[in-house]
């Protein structure tokens, strides 16, 4: 039996998010993101494995998955041939060093030191008397480059003489070619050496786009110190490794070969190698020597020395690293938490970074995320904006506006998102699929924007609609549509149709209301939030998201009345075709009748299968609000009456789904109790369940889904069946991904729901459990941040790119610290538990609200627990404010906020006192 390797956990240094980790190389699959907002995306491990790319079709280093990280031959490397006939990898990536890593006692010590998107690995070999410090980052510039600085220090008492060689394998092609035409595409490679390194410019591209002239070059260049040029190059991989050699045992290094190429050589048709030889170096004890390696992707007609001019010295590297640190710290400046747990507060800074990472990487360009071909999905657009409203609020209005272009007139939406704002593309695979939850998220995000800004006028701004051949929510095809029509909905005259943002939201929710299955819940269609519930499109229903649509409708009905009062308008315009969806005004139907709902929806679809009339009608706001509220209340009453389960053990919870046989998914079965977390989240969050029922549901969740082994709440119980009538998720091993893992996204939404309904202590317990699990490196084996899920063995999986980060930020600020907007006013409603206040009985949150820097500090001088305190007094910049409370929440009017200076920080102190004080 192999003895388990012990590692210490990562530890934060100060409050800037920097951390250290001892022996990081002894954890498999550990990786770190390096990127900029220009499109450069890298991943890197403690052994410098990983990849470098700008998109699916342009990888400088070979694409990796998390499994291939365990075989890090194709890594960045830096070799020393020491005068004792020893070849030593400063990156630790040699055959000898890899075998030594399993030993408890080794002559090499390794430490990882990292901060916001930079990584340093410090490796010291006591036997050889040498230490390396290798720092990698992607500069925040227009260039698509990754920089690496290697500093070699003599730690011995005698002089150290060595010959250094930088070594980076150059893949230089599309990810499609990892197997498909792998050798053939090497024949396209044109390899050149210049004064500083190796450039590869393939003649053609071989990928899904077809055979095209290639315009991309891949370069590895290097300098010593402040610009000293290399001695020569080994630009062909097979020459560098030699016959019988490998990238972890290359002949050019092991034998210290000198048959390297010089500047100006061209070699065609081989896999390339960015191997760069420097002159022999001799260091006295304590002396150091540094080298800069520049790995870049660029248009092939650009200046080959452009990267050298920008980054080709130690001084320039250090300057860019400082810029990088300042940039990301400034990027994360707008949100900060301060509590009794400083480590938790630092961990949250990494969570803040995650939504930005997903905007850069999409869902496909880190080692775990080996699905898809780049980009984000519809749901990602809206949920990432939740975090951006807190972190970078300025551009979000435009993002929201552009995102609404993706809505179809049948209430569904485009599923392929382009690279430009508001660009949506017809599905390249022509797959007819609709996710039933997609229509709910735009309102959730828009409502947050309206609460923060107070700009109700946004609802009346007009926007276009998406159009392709899919219609009837992907159940039919518009045979009149073709490419010449374009991807914008048109009216009968051929003009592109526009409707208000409110109209878009109404279409999404009203079509969903009528689109019900045999049990009168909304059809599951292709899937809902749980993409793995994808095999019940005929009779499947999602009770869970029916509840979310219902709560959205209720909020929308109230929002309409606010819109009327603020803008002093009596009516709004909607498309003429939509009138039948507002049935209480035009032709009421029985909501208990599935057939009547489906027939009405079919009539609407028939009206807008191809073009729309372009005509609009005015509708009274009061009547519209009444219609929507009636629908919302029906949904809530229906779920309470029809979807509650009480099992043989006396536990109660909500059934969340129906399978493709039309049978309830949850309850008592021969194989055991079946329960989903998703089915509980939205009835709690949306107000379907009252306080008494919530308490019962919490007990059920704790009984069947809570599991400290995986650090939180499981997504579902073990169904012990591959349910082909529900979805592929049940084909996964139980405890992994969508089948019973601690899936962070839904667990965080569960925490949000508990806080929202006043169950703060219960919410904090789960939040604390997740953090402590992630913070326990022996269990989680991940760097700071929240992963997509925790596996059955407790390991964090799919790091960095997860929607749970946005929801955690939202939960922390809006619910835990209770700092939120209320149609432009600032509302304060703290739900902090006693343990979160520091030694000074203080907890605070810094945020940007309406462009103002706001620091909200809560004083709990009597050390009261949540539920024992209320707001007793509030000051703004030292001045007492009138204690204006609304159901216990303090409201600061927008007109007061508008008078605050934008460039100054404003401090609000909230004094908490006993409830009976």
Would you write up a description of this structure?
InterPro entries: 6-hairpin_glycosidase_sf, 6hp_glycosidase-like_sf, Gal_mutarotase_sf_dom, GH65_N, GH94_catalytic, GH94_Enzymes, Glyco_hydrolase_94_b-supersand. This is Cellobiose phosphorylase. Keywords: Glycosyltransferase, Transferase. One of its GO terms (molecular function) is glycosyltransferase activity. It comes from Clostridium fungisolvens. This protein has 917 residues and is α+β, with helices and mostly antiparallel strands. 27% of the residues lie in helices and 26% in strands. It has 22 helices and 52 strands. The chain has 4 domains: 320 residues, Glycoside hydrolase, family 65, N-terminal domain (Beta-galactosidase, Chain A, domain 5, Distorted Sandwich); 216 residues, Glycosyltransferase (Alpha/alpha barrel); 248 residues, no CATH class; 94 residues, Maltose phosphorylase, domain 3, CATH 2.60.420. The radius of gyration is 30 Å and the shape is globular. The N terminus is likely disordered. The longest helix has 25 residues. The strands form 15 sheets. It has an 11-stranded antiparallel beta sheet. The termini are far apart. Helix 7 crosses helix 21, helix 12 packs antiparallel against helix 15 and helix 18 runs parallel beside helix 21.
Distance between the termini: 63 Å
Number of helices: 22
Uncertain spans: 1-7
Oligomeric state, counting identical vs distinct chains: single chain
Stated plainly, the CATH topology of the largest domain is called Beta-galactosidase, Chain A, domain 5
Helix content: 25-40%
* CATH class descriptor of the largest domain: Mainly Beta
CATH superfamily of the largest domain: Glycoside hydrolase, family 65, N-terminal domain
CATH architecture descriptor text of the largest domain? Distorted Sandwich
Largest sheet descriptor:
11 strands, antiparallel
Tally the structural domains: 4
- Please give the number of β-strands: 52
- C-alpha Rg, in Å? 30 Å
Strand order of the largest sheet: 1-2-9-10-11-12-23-18-15-14-20
Pfam family, one: Glyco_hydro_94
Domain Glycosyl hydrolase 94 supersandwich: 117-312
Domain Glycosyl hydrolase 94 catalytic: 650-818
Keywords: Glycosyltransferase, Transferase
């Amino acid at each position: 039996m192999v003895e388990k390797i012990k590692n210490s956990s990562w530890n934060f240094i100060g409050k800037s998010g920097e951390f250290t980790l001892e022996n990081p190389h002894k954890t498999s699959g550990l990786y770190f993101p390096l990127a900029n907002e220009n499109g450069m995306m890298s991943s890197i491990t403690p052994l410098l494995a990983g990849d470098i790319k700008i998109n699916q079709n342009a990888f400088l280093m070979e694409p990796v998955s998390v499994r291939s990280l365990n075989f890090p031959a194709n890594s960045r490397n830096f070799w020393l041939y020491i005068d004792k006939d020893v070849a030593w990898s400063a990156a630790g990536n040699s055959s000898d060093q890899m075998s030594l890593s399993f030993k408890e006692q080794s002559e090499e010590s390794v430490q990882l030191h990292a901060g916001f998107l930079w990584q340093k690995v410090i490796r010291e070999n006591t036997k050889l008397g040498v230490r390396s410090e290798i720092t990698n980052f992607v500069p925040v510039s227009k260039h698509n480059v990754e920089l690496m600085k290697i500093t070699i220090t003599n730690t011995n008492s005698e002089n150290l003489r060595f010959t250094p060689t930088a070594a980076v394998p150059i893949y230089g092609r599309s990810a499609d070619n990892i197997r498909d035409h792998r050798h053939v595409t090497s024949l396209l490679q044109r390899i050149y050496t210049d004064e500083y390194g190796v450039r590869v410019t393939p003649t053609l591209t071989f990928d899904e786009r077809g055979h095209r002239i290639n315009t991309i070059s891949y370069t590895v260049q290097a300098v010593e110190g402040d610009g000293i040029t290399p001695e020569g190059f080994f630009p062909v991989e097979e020459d560098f490794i030699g016959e019988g050699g490998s990238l972890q045992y290359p002949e050019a290094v092991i034998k210290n070969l000198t048959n390297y190429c010089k500047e100006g050589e061209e070699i065609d048709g081989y896999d390339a190698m960015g191997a760069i030889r420097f002159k022999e170096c001799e260091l006295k004890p304590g002396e150091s020597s540094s080298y800069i390696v520049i790995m870049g992707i660029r248009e092939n007609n650009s200046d080959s020395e452009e990267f050298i001019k920008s980054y080709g010295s130690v001084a320039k590297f250090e300057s860019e690293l400082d810029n990088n640190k300042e940039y990301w710290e400034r990027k994360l400046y707008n949100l900060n938490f301060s509590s009794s747990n400083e480590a938790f507060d630092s961990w949250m800074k990494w969570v803040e970074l995650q939504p930005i990472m997903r905007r850069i990487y999409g869902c496909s360009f880190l080692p775990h995320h080996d699905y898809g071909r780049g980009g984000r999905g519809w749901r990602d657009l809206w949920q990432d904006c939740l975090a951006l409203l807190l972190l970078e609020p300025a551009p979000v209005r435009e993002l929201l506006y552009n995102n609404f272009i993706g809505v179809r007139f049948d209430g569904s939406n485009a599923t392929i998102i382009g690279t430009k704002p508001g660009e949506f593309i017809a599905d390249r695979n022509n797959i007819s699929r609709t996710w039933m939850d997609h229509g709910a998220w735009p309102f959730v995000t828009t409502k947050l924007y309206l609460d923060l800004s107070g700009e109700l006028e946004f609802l009346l701004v007009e926007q276009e609609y998406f159009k392709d051949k899919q219609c009837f929510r992907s159940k039919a095809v518009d045979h009149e549509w073709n490419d010449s029509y374009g991807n914008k909905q048109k009216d009968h005259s051929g003009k592109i149709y526009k409707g208000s943002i409110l109209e878009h939201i109404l279409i999404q929710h009203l079509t969903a209301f009528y689109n019900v299955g045999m049990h009168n819940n909304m059809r599951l269609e292709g899937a809902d939030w749980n993409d793995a519930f994808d095999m019940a499109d005929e009779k499947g229903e999602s009770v869970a998201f029916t509840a979310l649509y219902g709560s959205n409708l209720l909020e929308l009905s109230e929002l309409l009345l606010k819109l009327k009062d603020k803008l002093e308008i009596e009516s709004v315009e909607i498309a003429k075709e939509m009138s039948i969806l507002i049935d209480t005004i035009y032709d009421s139907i029985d909501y208990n009748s599935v057939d009547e709902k489906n027939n009405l929806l079919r009539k609407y679809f028939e009206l807008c299968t191809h073009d729309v009339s372009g005509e609009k009608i005015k509708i009274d706001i009061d009547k519209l609000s009444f219609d929507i509220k009636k629908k919302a209340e029906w949904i809530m009453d229906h779920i309470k009456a029809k979807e509650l389960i009480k099992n043989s053990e006396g536990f109660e919870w909500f059934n969340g789904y129906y399978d493709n046989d039309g049978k309830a998914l949850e309850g008592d079965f021969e194989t055991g109790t079946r329960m989903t977390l998703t089915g509980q989240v939205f009835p709690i969050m949306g107000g379907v369940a009252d306080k008494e029922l919530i308490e019962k549901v919490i007990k059920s969740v704790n009984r069947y889904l809570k599991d400290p082994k995986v650090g939180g709440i499981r997504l579902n119980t073990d169904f012990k069946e591959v349910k082909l009538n529900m979805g592929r998720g049940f084909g996964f091993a139980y405890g992994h991904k969508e089948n019973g893992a601690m899936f962070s996204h839904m667990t965080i939404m569960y925490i949000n729901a508990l806080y929202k309904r006043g169950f703060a202590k219960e919410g904090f317990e789960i939040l604390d459990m997740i953090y402590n699990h992630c913070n326990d490196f022996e269990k989680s084996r991940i760097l700071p941040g929240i992963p997509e899920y925790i596996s059955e063995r407790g390991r964090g999986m799919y790091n960095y790119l997860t929607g749970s980060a946005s929801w955690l930020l939202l939960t922390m600020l809006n619910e835990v610290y209770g700092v939120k907007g209320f149609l432009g006013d600032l509302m304060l409603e703290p739900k902090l538990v006693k343990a979160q206040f520091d030694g000074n009985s203080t907890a605070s949150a810094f945020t940007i609200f309406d462009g103002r820097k706001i620091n909200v500090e809560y004083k709990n001088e009597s050390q009261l627990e949540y539920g024992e305190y209320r707001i007793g007094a509030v000051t703004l910049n030292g001045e007492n404010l009138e204690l204006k409370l609304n159901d216990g929440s303090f409201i600061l009017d927008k007109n007061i906020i508008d008078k605050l200076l934008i460039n100054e920080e404003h401090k609000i102190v909230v004094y908490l006192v006993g409830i009976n004080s």
